[in-house]
Amino acid sequence: MTAGEANAPFPLEAERIPPIGRIDLLLVRLPFVAPFSISSATWTCKEALVLRVEGGGAVGWGECVADPDPFYAAETTTSARHIVSEFLLPLVEPGMTLGELDSRFSHVRGNRMAKATFENALVDLVAKVKGVPLHELLGGPRKRISSGISLGIQESPADLVREVEAAVAKGYHRVKVKVKRGKDVDYVAAVRERFPDIPLMADANGDYRLEDAAHLARLDAFGLTMIEQPLSYSDFYEHAALQKLLKTPLCLDESIHDLSEARAAIELGGCRILNLKQGRVGGLLESLRILRHAASAGVPVWSGGMDETGIGRAVNIHLQTLDGFTLPGDTSETSRYFHEDLVDPPVVLDAEGYIDVPEGAGIGVTVVPERLEKHSLRSEKLR
Ligand code: OSB
Ligand code: MG
Q1: What is the pTM of this model?
Q2: Mean pLDDT of all residues in the chain?
C-alpha cells in the first residue's frame, strides 16, 4: 500500500446527513436468558442507550455499547448520555458529510462509545434515505458472515464443557471461553479434551499480571487461536513483553480505542490479532481505518460484540461483510442472549453456521415499537 492509498478517503465519508427532525434518547433494559460473567463483572441484563433520529422521511437508530457500570470500559450509559446530549448533538448539522461530522466529533476527546452511538444512527439514516443496505454503503461484498460464541465463566469445567457441546451442536464456527485467575487451565483443558480440534480461544478481560506469564504459558499446550486481553485494560506495553514469553498469539480488545492505539499496539508486538468492536472505537469510519491498517500490517481482525440488542448486532453484521474480517467474531444468535429482542427478524444461524446479512435499507432490521416501549426505562426528547 502506498502512502496515498493508506490515507485515501472512504466513500462513506462523502455521504451527506439529510435534514433532521426529532431526536430521542432512550434507555432500554432487556433481561438475559442467563447471567453472563466475565472476570471483571456479571450481568443479568443488557442495559443500553438507544438513539433515535428522524430525518428525510426515515428513522435512524444507534445503540451505545457502554454498560451502566465501568467494569469493562470507562464509559457508562450515564457518561454517554451526557456526552451525546451536551457535546455531540450541538455539532450535528444537516448537509454536512459524515467525514465532516467525524472531524467535528474529534474535538470531543475520547468518549468513543458515545460517538459511535451518534455516528451509527446517522449512518443508518443516510442508508435508509438512499434506500440501500448498510453493507452496501460500506462496500462489503459478503452475503453471509461467520458466527462465533463467547461463553461466560461457569461454576465448573464440566458446566463449561456442556455449554461448549451445545454451541458446537448449534454449528458455531468458533468458541471463546471466558477465563480468570483460578478458572483457566483446568477449564480450557476440559474443553480441549472433549473437542480436540475446534477453533477455541480464551478471553481474560485483563485479569492477569505480567508476573503470571509462566502460568499463562501453560495455555500454550491447548492450541488456542489466541488469548484475548490477558493483561490490563489500559496496557499494550506489557502485552508486548508477555507475547515474547508465549507461543499463543495475543489479541487485544478493551485496550484499543482508536486507530493510533491499534497501530502502537501492533508495532510494539502486543497485538498479533485484533478484536474490533465498532461501538468501542467510535463507529464505522474509525473501524474502516483500523481494518485498513491491520490488513497492511498483516494482522488478522475479527468483530467482537457487547451483547448488543438487535440494533447494534445488525451494525456488527453489516461491518463483517468486509474482507478485512479474517476470523469468526462474537456474533451469536439472538436467542442465546434474549427471550425477546427489540427488533425483527432475530439473528439465526443457517445449516452451515453462517448468519445472513439483512438486505433491507440501513441496518435492515425493524425496531418493534411495542417492544421498545415495553423495555424502555427512560426516554427523552433531545431535539
Ligand atoms: O470482552 O469481548 C468481551 C461482552 C461484554 C463485554 C465484553 C465482552 C463481551 C463478550 C460477549 O465477550 C460478546 C457478545 O456475545 O456480544
Ligand atoms: Mg473481550
Answers
A1: 0.98
A2: 97
